[in-house]
Amino acid sequence: LNRRLAEFGTTIFAEMSALALSTGSINLGQGFPDTDGPEEIREAAVRALRDGRGNQYPPGPGIPELRTAIAAHQERRYGLTYDPDTEVLVTAGATEAIAAALLALLEPGDEVIALEPYYDSYAACIAMAGGTRVPVTLRPHESSFRLDLDELRDAVTDRTRLLLINTPHNPTGTVLTREELTAIAALAVERDLLVVTDEVYEHLVFDDAEHIPLATLPGMRDRTVTIGSAGKSFSFTGWKVGWVTAPRELVSAVRSAKQFLTYVASGPFQYAVAEALRLPETYFEEFRADMRAKRDLLAGGLEQAGFKVFRPAGTYFITTDIRPLGESDGFAFCRALPERCGVVAIPNAVFYDHREQGAPFVRFAFCKRTTVLEEAASRLKTPT
Ligand code: PMP
Ligand code: GLN
């Protein structure tokens, strides 16, 4: 393994899902729903397969039907207009979109500012692109993790090329407010930075929180690459269909890298995702309401078990603080948890460069059936 990748080892998600399997534990680690997305969308995939649509290489940038549906979704929800032919790119999941964007837009030595804790692939992709990551830490406040705008500003140097933003944020569940996004946008404009914004949890915001795409802020459309995922929005994480929307030059750059990573994303699923993006608003409302109820169920269980819970405004993850349990090392806690009570979770420290900052935090995924969450809550309450 080369020096660029040596520090990364095996992703925590593979390690923890293997641990869940080998110990027969409830897997609240890796974030994937245990209920698949809508039946009619699965049927659409089967129809495409049977009709021979997409069984051979689809067009490199994605099938026109899907690119049109992505553009229509951005327009309908956010008033953002993108030309489906030149400003939309279909990728093999958001994971490939992140990789292709960073590989295409960074020069070796460029600095990338990322919100810490950060999704693990960001660090690896910045490294593969020869860039340098500059983490800006979200700090725990009473009920949520927040960005310190002065710290963000201070992190920008003459070498900064790009801001890598994620809202709703994995793993903290923070949804950036309009005020925070306005400050990020002003900084990007002032320092002439590109922005890659991972908005895969755009449909998972709860209560009063609102998802505001960074590209909608003044001066941002022209410098922003926005990333979405059918895995997250429609509960088909195994299909690996994601997308990028951005101005023409940026999409063209990302496409240059993407064509040599996978060339294209899988064909029949693209037809199905095009239909999914056209589902009526009731689908998204029900999806949100269902996840909100699951959030409340697991948050309540974790609180009763003694955790401090940061109730997330978005995503399907809850970050907890384990110090009220008399614990301080999230790694040790997560490694012992399957034995103690048959539940798997993720130590947030893996998402930090400043590991000590993340040490006492542990993430639980709540995209699971109610009965599974109830059982997990009861096991967490009575560890053996
Ligand atoms: N970004 C974030 C913040 C994620 O949580 C995930 C999924 N875990 C991804 C990107 C990757 O999405 P996909 O499965 O579409 O590749
Ligand atoms: N995004 C998912 C999570 O945060 C995992 C995706 C993966 O396994 N790479 O849990």
TrEMBL record:
InterPro entries in the cross-refs: Aminotransferase_I/II_large (IPR004839), Kynurenine-oxoglutarate_AT (IPR051326), PyrdxlP-dep_Trfase (IPR015424), PyrdxlP-dep_Trfase_major (IPR015421), PyrdxlP-dep_Trfase_small (IPR015422)
Record flagged with keyword Transferase: yes
Example GO molecular function: transaminase activity
CDD domains according to UniProt: AAT_like (cd00609)
This protein's record includes keyword Cytoplasm: no
Residues covered by the Aminotransferase class I/classII large domain: 26-380
Cofactor(s) this protein requires: pyridoxal 5'-phosphate
This protein's UniProt keywords: Aminotransferase, Pyridoxal phosphate, Transferase
The protein's name in its UniProt record: Pyridoxal phosphate-dependent aminotransferase
Source organism (scientific name): Streptomyces ureilyticus
